[in-house]
Amino acid sequence: MAPLALAGPLLPLAACAPVPAAAQRGLLPDFADLAERVQPAVVNIAVTSEQRVEVPPELRGTPFERYFRDRQRGRRQETVGAGSGFVIDPGGFIVTNNHVVGNASRVVVALQDGSELTARVVGTDELTDLALLKVEPRGPMTAVPWGSSAAARVGSWVLAAGNPFGLGGTVTAGIISARGREIGAGPFDDFIQTDAAINPGNSGGPLFNAAGEVIGINTAIYSPSGASAGIGFATPSDLARPVIEQLRRDGRVERGWLGVSVQDVVPENGQGRRGVLIAGIERNSPAGRAGLRQGDIVVAINGDRVETSRALVRTVAAVPPGQTLRLTVLREGRERELPVQVGRRPGAG
């Protein structure tokens, strides 16, 4: 056991007056009613996927590699994984992480009462790491409502629910430690950070506010040991909800695309304007057809200032393919406006 660190000088026990029970109840919230209400909507997800058997590294490049390939031709190995999810509709729609279901050949949802249902993957979105499942329940399922992640404040109490380490339904409590965290997961990084214990198996589970509304989907942890270190990350509901609604409606997410590589422009010594440098343009891309050039600096979209590449990517991605954006660019020291018809992001659908 690690040695205890003292936060201050030791005081004699007699000097520490007992705190009345009523005062103790006022210091910390009681999550019992909340947990009882929301837990029936939290599910465990077991997945099975088939993968081709890979050649062991020690056999690659040796005379045994061909022999191994001949023996394993046509064979596949099964991998099993587990995660969490939550019901958003009594008819059986369930939200989880994309990395929980992956390329699963079979998905089974286990409810709090121990019953199991086979699930169908309605759609997935790799960029936000979200997935929507559908089961056929025997009757209406307990569902939980979405809440507004924008209304959540740093320091607010939250409750995380899921299936850590395969133990079964579990809840942990904590606070929102930070908002808007970028952890290198992708262009849509905007995570809620919480110190509520999140461990392997919690992925895809809900993060509730004190009203029992889902304000995040537990997605990642920072952990040198693989266990909770008090730093967990959840995809905010305001980002997740429209993605889930589009998956439910269309089975896929379509995002706008310009076909450019970009980087931030930060003025030196505070001189000049912030913007987004067009570092490269793909051939036959919407940007190329619109006359955008390498070296242009985008400073506004539809008249609204844009100062970071992340903001540009998110703005364009939110525009349905086929619509036109008005880009304000700096070229050779002069401003000009270019209309660009947004294309469909490659790989969508």
Question: What does the model show?
Answer:
With 349 residues, the chain is of the alpha+beta class. The chain has 3 domains: 38-55 and 62-134, Thrombin, subunit H (Beta Barrel); 149-250, Trypsin-like serine proteases (Thrombin, subunit H), CATH 2.40.10.10; 256-344, Roll (Pdz3 Domain). Helix content is 16%, strand content 36%. The protein is built from 7 helices and 20 strands. It has helices at 21-27, 32-38, 64-72, 98-101, 237-250, 286-290, 309-317, and strands at residues 42-52, 76-89, 93-96, 106-110, 116-125, 130-134, 157-162, 170-181, 191-194, 206-208, 214-221, 232-236, 256-257, 260-265, 275-281, 297-301, 304-305, 324-331, 334-341, 343-344. A 6-stranded antiparallel beta barrel has the order 1-2-3-6-5-4. The N and C termini lie far apart (51 Å).
Structural class: alpha+beta
CATH homology group of the largest domain: Trypsin-like serine proteases
What is the CA-CA span between the terminal residues?
51 Å
**CATH topology label of the largest domain:** Thrombin, subunit H
The helix content is 10-25%
Count of domain modules? 3
Please outline the major beta sheet. Answer: 6 strands, antiparallel, barrel
Number of helices: 7
Mean pLDDT: 84
Shape: globular
